[in-house]
Design a protein that fits this description.
By secondary structure, this protein is mainly α. Helices cover 65% and strands 0% of the residues. The longest helix has 28 residues.
């Protein structure tokens, strides 16, 4: 179930990025884009939170944050800086401003570090929601170190952790087929209604600047809302995205399918797909009014990208970049609880 959810969620991320150049001129593309963005990032973050550990951080957990998140961020941010420089831009190696999709790595590192402290409090999910809503009221919280998105999407990460505390998987698998299909029918109705509402009120969504709210990377005032009730819009989007996330998980197949093994390759897809889509983003190939078939063709192309980047040969080639082990970077395991290395008589650490 969870590997299925991982791969489908990351594929939706790729599709959302792939059709972005089309949304300016196409109401159909914009409707699909808003539909996907109403839940796909929430699902991705929720799944990450579901598997996050909330116990006291130990050396192994901190080492995993470095090897799984921090080192890949430094590697790929450097690569993007070089690419921009080769294309005629200024060489400015700035690790405080994440390139395109790399904001997620910064946010994920912060979420995993903060979670053990946040769950010590009585109502961690409500506190995370309050932090998210409050962050939108100040313009001093911006994209530096992805802080705006880190705080804005924190509720989804905590929500994922809560789902595990509620033993969602076990309870879901214990349901009879008849009851499970009732839940699935409700989820289908919810998604169908959401998808139908997007094109029906597309001009309203454009006027409300709904897309900018869904990105969680700007203050309300920067979007154009300086009213005291602006936070209610974010609250509504947070709650609705959580509802859609649960509906998404309900619809996930329980058993193994041809794409199930791809669920272990989500980080490869996330970090590498932007290189494939970069030419579409930076060139006018998709600019202006496009034939009707371009949207579905682009969606199929993005699904193909997700499949190819999940394959073992691709993972084997790019493993040193996506999963750097970097053993040489780490000191030997400490011999005492205080972190002191006990040296033998020959002076070499054991």
């Amino acid at each position: 179930m969870w590997d299925n959810a991982r791969w489908i969620a990351i594929t939706l991320v790729v599709i959302g990025h792939g059709i972005l150049p089309l949304i300016g001129e196409s109401n159909s593309a914009y409707s699909v884009y808003l539909f996907i963005y109403s839940f796909h990032v929430a699902v991705f973050v929720t799944v990450s939170g579901y598997f996050a550990k909330s116990g006291p951080p130990n050396a192994r957990a901190l080492r995993q944050i470095l090897t799984d998140i921090v080192f890949p961020f430094l590697i790929f941010e450097t690569i993007w800086t070089i690419i921009k420089w080769l294309l005629g831009g200024e060489f400015a190696l700035d690790y405080t401003t994440a390139s395109w999709t790399l904001w997620f790595l910064i946010a994920l590192a912060v979420w995993r570090i903060v979670l053990p402290y946040l769950v010590l409090l009585r109502f961690p999910l409500l506190i995370a929601i309050a932090i998210s809503i409050g962050a939108g009221y100040t313009e001093t919280i911006d994209s530096t170190l992805a802080l705006s998105r880190t705080l804005g999407m924190l509720p989804f990460f905590v929500f994922g952790w809560k789902l595990r505390q509620w033993q969602l998987t076990g309870r879901w698998l214990e349901l009879s087929s008849a009851v499970a299909w009732r839940w699935r029918a409700g989820a289908i109705v919810l998604f169908g209604t959401t998808l139908a509402l997007m094109p029906l009120a597309i001009e309203t969504w454009r006027d409300l600047k709904l897309r900018r709210f869904m990105l969680y990377d700007e203050s309300y005032e920067a979007i154009g809302y300086d009213e005291p009730w602006s936070g209610a819009i974010r609250l509504g989007l947070l709650l609705f995205a959580m509802l859609l996330s649960v509906a998404f998980l309900v619809l996930m197949p329980r058993g193994a399918h041809w794409f199930t093994p791809f669920g272990t390759a989500t980080m490869y897809i996330y970090l590498l797909h932007s290189f494939v889509l970069f030419p579409f983003r930076e060139t006018p190939v998709l600019a202006g009014d496009q034939p009707f078939w371009v949207l579905p063709a682009m969606m199929l192309f993005c699904i193909g990208i997700s499949i190819v980047l999940s394959l073992k040969p691709v993972r084997r080639v790019f493993r040193p970049l996506v999963e750097p082990r970097a053993r040489w970077m780490f000191r030997p395991e400490p011999s005492t609880a205080t972190g002191t290395l006990v040296l033998p008589p020959d002076g070499e650490p054991r």
